[in-house]
Each structure stands twice: as C-alpha cells, then as structure tokens.
Write a structure and sequence with these properties.
Dipeptide-binding Protein, domain 3; 15 helices; 549 residues; alpha+beta; 2 domains
C-alpha cells in the first residue's frame, strides 16, 4: 500500500512539473520576422566609362571617382558634414603651431592581394604626387611639393608624419586621397602612370575589390579583409552607357537596378515608376554665372549696380522648378550651407524685377531709342551668355529681357567652354557648374592671385576678400577661421563677382528590391555609398520568442 502511495506521489509531482512546463511554454509568443541576409548583387547604370581606376588620376572622370571610392581608402575621409575623420589612419594629431601632422595607421590592414598596408605605401603615394613628372592634377602636385613626408618608425611601420613649411588649415582635406600599394606601383615610373596596367587592375583597400572589367561593365566583389563593416550585398555591377539620357530606358528594360544619377529632366518620368525609389540629397557645389569684368567688350560688368540688377532680375526658384524639376536649392553664398563656415545671415537677393529696373535706371541705363534694349552713351546693355545647357540659357535670357537687357544664348560643350573661353578669359558671361568638397577654403576660386591664370574666371580682385581668405587658411582655430569666412561672404554678397544660382540636388534611383538605402549630404557622388554596408536585397525568416506579460 505504501509503495502504491509513493508512486501516486511521484506521478502527482511529475504532473505538477509538466503543468509548470506547459504554463511556461504558453507564456511565450513565437513569431517569425524577416531579416537581412548576405548575398545578392546590385546592378547600377552610369553615364560614361572608366579610364583610370587610380585615386591619383580619378579627378579627370566622375566614373573613376565613384569606383575609386569603393576600391580605395585614404588616411582620412570626409563625413556627411564635410569633416575630416580617420579612415585607414587610427589617429591624427596636429601640433599646436599647425605645422606637424602625425598619423598612425590601423594595425591589421591588408591590400586586396593580401599584402599588409604600411607607411611605405603612404610614402610612395605622396612622393608620386611630389614628382615633377606626375601626370595627375597640377593642384595635387603644387600642394604636396610643399610638404615633407616621413615615416618615424621606418617604411615598414605604421607611423606617418607630414611637416608643413607654414600653417595651412585645409591641409587635412588632402589626406583623404586614396593610397596606392607601393609593392606594385614602385615598379612603374611616375611619368608612365597613366599607361600602367594597374589602372584597370586596381588593388586597393576598399570594401569591394575588382572581379571583372570590360569597356561596358565592371564587376566588384566584397573584400573579405576590409577593416570596416562588411556589406550584406556580395557584389556590385556597374554598366556603362553613353549619356544620362540612356539610363532611364535601361532601367525600364530591366538591364539595371539603379540609376547612378537621375538627371533633372528625367525626374518626371522617374516619379512614374512605383518600383523606383528616389533618394535626394544636397551635393557640394553650385551653379553660377560668371560676368567677365576683364573683357573690354562688356565694360558695364564692372558696375556693381548692373551686377546687382541682373541678380535681382533672376527668378531662381522658377528656374529650379521648371528647368531643374526641383533639383536645386537657391544659393546665397559660395560656401555650402551645411559647412561650419557658412553665414546664415549673409545678404540674400530675392527676385525683384522692379528693384532691378530701378537700379539700372539710376545708373543711367535707359532705352533711348525704343528698341527694347537699354543703352547708355552709345553702349547697348547686351552680351553673349555661354553654357552647356541651352534650356537654362534661354530661360535666363528671357528673364533679363524683361529688364531691357539683351542676351544672346549660345550653347557650347563643357570642354570647349573651359578651354576656349574661361581659361583665356575671352567670354562675356558664362553659366558654369562647380563641384566642391571638404574644407570651405575659397582661395582657388576667388583669391586675386587666381584671377589671371587660375580658376578665378571672374577675374575678381578685392583686397578685403583676399585678406579674409588668407587669414582663414593660416589659423588653426576654427572659430577664428569662421569669422574671417563670414567677412569674405559679406564682401562677396556686396560685390557680386558672379551670380550664384543654386546648389544642385543629387537624386539616386534604385529599384525597391534594394532595402535600407539612406542618403545624407554628399561631398561627391561617390558618397552615395556611405551607408552601403546596410543595403540588402536578400532576406531570411527567423523565429523569435517574446514573453507575454
């Protein structure tokens, strides 16, 4: 009997345990969710074709610049605010006098071919740009020739030091240039760099590495030794087309999943595709109209009143809405609004044709013969406006015609505009697009030393502006620099050496099968991949449990 009772007790205890287990089980809610999975390839269409997959030569070609942003890294990089932050470098230290920059490379960095990254690679890259026969952009050589580069721990170490002859606050920006592998490139004479096989067989340190290349397509695969976050996508394919007009038809044919840059004129068509997600962001740069004060054929451009009248007579928002299909923001300063140096209180020119007419008449510009064109002392207020976009030129000409200003709009190719008119300073007025990046230093475009042979195509010479620029680029303290840039912007807005139209808006189009695409402010088109590690197209379902309260 006792034995029987003991068994009953055991059974009862087991029942309690099983009941408890059942109750615990029912206290959980099991569900399945979709999460990103590694795999998949993004196929993107771009206008143009690769020429030099080499960060020292990529400034010639936007396609090269974009691909190099995925294949190579510099000691530093620019974040979305245009700030210099470490990349291959683990640390960056600047001496109090602003003359010495010390970098330390991350340990465990490898090139795509498995060789380690050392100071030797930095030395080679910089010394190549310092060479007299360097075939890249002249401004790169001009800057680096003034810098002493050394490796305090020897070429096989991780320490790099740059020593400047005088303080130069924008210097850190130049350390974003991609590095080349010395163990490969040392065998190539610098003057033969453009002809090297490594321009089409690049070995870098970026998140992706070259898989295949042809004249019409480049395939990239994930770099397994990349020092940053590993992307979900296992590959990127770039297909190249002759022009931007070819990209939307290619998307509609299903040849590509993404459009590298949705051009403004394609925006109406792009918005009709429900499966095409559009991501827009401001991109560093601006579109302006140069007025050539140095050209004796248009002496009236030396008059501030005329320049201001032309500015007040431009309905820039209408230009953005109609010709640009909304892909622009009205520009008020040659310094970008997202920059720490931008002055939000800078003078703004609001569309006011009545004020424009008043300024012209006060300056003596009247229509004396009734032909609809203002004149003064036998000189007609008439000139030629050059640019590569006829629609924009015509729209601007029509706005100025309302003021009594005659403008002959002439469309020319971009190479022709630069080589035949801007460089020799033989134009009247010119509509030009500028791409900017990084430090807000306006010296190359607006300092008077650049007026004759540099990129100051307006020929603007103003001592107050020069002094502000010079002081700002020599001071290490950012707030002190900012105050000088505020002064520069004030002088620029008063003098109007050029008519700022708009900051361009960049739009990226990608098929909705690609998820978690994000777009912040861009310094260059290649910055669209800043969040690439998070993009995904392949998913999997996993079961998760949550406790019911």
């Amino acid at each position: 009997m006792g034995k029987y009772l003991r068994w009953q007790a055991v059974i009862a205890i087991l029942g309690i345990v099983l009941l408890g287990a059942l109750l615990r089980y029912t206290a959980y809610n099991f569900t399945s969710v979709t999460v990103p999975e590694r795999g998949g390839t993004l196929v993107e269409g771009m206008a143009g074709s690769p020429q030099f997959l080499n960060p020292l030569l990529s400034q010639y070609n936007q396609v090269d610049g974009v691909l190099c942003s995925l294949l190579f890294n510099g000691l530093t990089m620019l974040d979305e605010r245009g700030e210099v932050v470490p990349d291959l470098a683990e640390t960056m230290t600047i001496s109090p006098d602003g003359l010495t920059y010390d970098f330390r490379l991350r340990s465990g960095l490898y090139w795509h071919d498995g060789m380690p990254v050392t100071a030797r690679d930095v030395l080679y890259t910089i010394q190549s740009m310092q060479a007299d026969d360097f075939p890249g952009m002249a401004w790169l050589s001009d800057l680096w020739r003034e810098v002493e580069v050394s490796a305090p721990e020897g070429p096989d170490g991780l320490a790099i030091r740059f020593t400047l002859k005088q303080p130069f606050s924008p210097f850190a920006d130049y350390t974003t240039i991609g590095l080349l592998p010395a163990h490969l490139w040392e065998e190539v004479p610098v003057d033969d760099m453009m002809a090297s096989q490594y321009n089409t067989r690049p070995i870098g340190t970026g998140p992706f590495q070259l898989d295949r290349i042809s004249a019409t397509q480049v395939d990239l695969k994930v770099n397994p030794s990349y020092h940053g976050a590993s992307p979900f996508l296992e590959g990127l394919t770039f297909r190249f087309y002759p022009d931007h007009q070819s990209l939307m038809p290619a998307y509609e044919r299903g040849e590509i999943d993404a459009i590298g840059w949705v051009w403004p004129e394609d925006m109406p068509q792009a918005t009709e595709h429900e499966d095409l997600a559009l991501f827009s962001s401001a991109i560093s740069g601006y579109t302006l109209i140069y007025l050539n004060e140095a050209n004796p054929n248009v002496p009236f451009f030396k008059e501030t009143a005329v320049r201001q009248a032309l500015m007040y007579g431009l309905d820039r928002q209408k230009l953005i809405d109609t010709i640009m299909h909304g892909q622009g923001l009205i520009a008020h300063s040659p310094i970008m609004p997202h920059s720490w140096a931008y002055d939000p209180n800078v003078r703004q020119y609001v569309y006011d044709p009545a004020l424009a007419i008043q300024l012209l008449e006060q300056a003596g510009w009247l229509d004396s013969d009734g032909d609809g064109i203002r004149d003064r002392e036998g000189v007609k207020l008439a000139f030629v406006l050059l640019g590569k976009d006829k629609a924009k030129l015509d729209a601007i000409s029509a706005m100025w015609a309302e003021l009594g200003v005659q403008t002959e709009a002439q469309a020319v190719s971009l190479p022709g505009l630069t080589a035949d008119f801007l460089v020799p300073r033989t134009y009247d007025a010119a509509l030009v697009d500028w791409e900017l990046s990084g430090d807000p230093d306006p010296y190359p475009l607006w300092h008077s030393t650049q007026a004759k042979t540099g990129q100051n195509y307006a020929g603007w010479e103003n001592r107050a502006a020069d002094e502000a620029i010079e002081q700002a680029r020599s001071l290490p303290d950012r707030e002190a620099r900012r105050l000088h840039y505020v002064e520069f912007q004030r002088v620029f807005a008063e003098e109007l050496p050029a008519l700022l139209l708009y900051y361009p808006v960049y739009t990226y189009g990608v098929r909705d099968k690609i998820h978690d695409v994000q777009m912040g402010p861009l310094n260059t088109p290649g910055d669209r991949y800043r969040s690439l590690a998070n993009w995904y197209s392949v998913t999997k379902r996993v079961t998760v449990a949550s406790v019911e309260k």
